[in-house]
Structures are given as C-alpha cells and as structure tokens.
Amino acid sequence: MQHLNTSIVPKKMKKASLILCILLSLSSYAQSGYKFKKTIYGYTLDQITLLTTQVDTTYYIEDMILKIWRPDSTVSDTAIAMGYYGYVLQPDYNPDRFLSLELKIMALNDNKEWKKALKYADSLISYYPTCLMGHVEISHAYNSLTDTIRAKQHRIIYERLGNMILKSGDGKSMETAYIITGLKDIEVLTQLQRMQIKKRVRKRKKKHTYEVVTVFKDFEQFDLYFDTSLIQEFRRF
Fold first, then answer.
1. Sign of the four-CA dihedral 183, 196, 200, 164
2. Residue 34 and which of 5, 25, 163, 232 are 20 to 30 A apart at CA?
3. Cβ atoms 133, 188 nearer than 8 A
C-alpha cells in the first residue's frame, strides 16, 4: 500500500491557496489596466499577469517557457498558452526589434546559407523564446544540415505552439479570431494548415486590431481573422 508523502502537501496546498486567492481577487472586478479585454484559455490578461509573475504559482513565466521548449505529452495547452501569451508582459518582448532578424534568417535559409541561418536563428530564439517563425527557421536550418534530431525538437516546439494558438479561437470572426503575439505568426499558422495567403487587410473594432487574411485551400477561398491587439498594446518602439 502506498503512503502519502506528507512533506509535500503543505507546499502544494500553499500554491493552490495562492492561486485561488489571486483568481478570487480578480473575479470581483473587470479588467482595468489593459485595453485587451478578451479571455485567453479562460483567463483574463490581469489573471495571466499575476499567474505568470508570481514565483509560487503553477504558471510562473520562466517555468512555462521551459515547458514550451520541452513540450512532452504531460505539458498542457494551457501551460503553453501561459508561456506564449504571458511573454508579452515581459520587458524583453519586442517583436518589432527582431523582425529584421527574422527576415534575414528566412533569406539565408532560402539562399541555402544554413550555417549562417542557424547562427542567427539560435540568437533570435535565445532572446525571443516564443518566436514561432524563429523555431520554424532554425528547424529548417538544422534539417538542411542533416541534424534531424535538433530539427525535430524545434519542429515539435512550433507545432505545439501553433496548435495551441489555433485553439485560441476558430478564426471565423473578429470575436473568435486567433490571438497572436508575433508579427510572422500568420505565415506560420497558415502554412501549418496548408493554406495559401491571397490577401491581408488590417481592421480595427473598438480597442482591438485585427488582420483579415484571405486564404485558399482545397479549391476554396475564405477569410481568417487574427487578433493582433496584444502586439499593438505591448509594442516598444
């Protein structure tokens, strides 16, 4: 008969109590500090802020980034979401700063300069660990250099990230748009779904910004909606 290890119970109870107190304290009022008002995986941005910045909580940001990078079968979509969306609250989040580097890496891979692409991609994801395109490009570089093991590791990362984002909505309307935090996420997400982009239009509704993307798949053309509000709200020019 197995016996309960009582030495770990107080710590777990303390953590659970802390999370409960945080959620209860936030349930009494609506979001006030952020323009972004939607819930993500059932959490408001205020809740994500507290849950990812408190060291004693289940979703502390540093732990969630590690889970993104090691997304085995025990890692939930919610944990990955906390890392991906929680990262916009970090001082290092600055997608505009890294856009030129992303484009440079893509060009290097296209020109078959895989060693250079690998070097720059490794630097990119070390500073911007939730960069979807960064993981795509480093996987491509590793694969081209016949390092299939590391290529697979990063492919698993961007596929899990992509699948998580695609569960943040259904993409059929502004209200149910996919919520993204990266400037190149749209290209990756449409590629994952084997779609061809035909047109992109930016729109605004109330305090939210969107990209309406016309795509073509299986002989059918239709629109997908991506919510870019988090990118706009946390931009650091």
1. negative
2. 163
3. yes
In 3-state terms, what secondary structure has residue 193? coil
Rounded to two decimals, what is the model's pTM?
A: 0.85
- In the three-class reduction of DSSP (H, G, I as helix; E, B as strand; rest coil), residue 28 is classed as coil
Joined tokens for residue 212: 């309406």
- Strand duo 220-227 + 178-179: pairing: parallel
| Pair type for strands 220-227 and 208-217 | antiparallel
In this model, does residue 195 exceed pLDDT 70? Answer: yes
With a CB cutoff of 8 Å and minimum separation 6, the contacts of 215 are 190, 195, 196, 197, 198, 221, 222, 223, 224
Instruction: Express each pLDDT in 20-77 by its tens digit.
Output: 444 444 443 344 579 999 999 999 999 999 999 999 999 999 999 999 999 999 999 9
Q: Which amino acid is at 150?
A: R
Residue with tokens 């205020």: 46
Q: Which alpha helices (DSSP H) does 111-236 contain, by range? A: 114-127, 132-144, 148-165, 185-192, 229-233
* Contact indicator for 202, 209 with CB cutoff of 8 Å: yes
DSSP secondary structure of 71-135? --TTS-HHHHHHHHHHGGGSTT--HHHHHHHHHHHHHHHHTT-HHHHHHHHHHHHHHSTT-HHHH
3-state secondary structure of 40: strand
pLDDT (tens digit, 9 = 90+) per residue, 199-236?
999 999 988 999 999 999 999 999 999 999 999 999 87
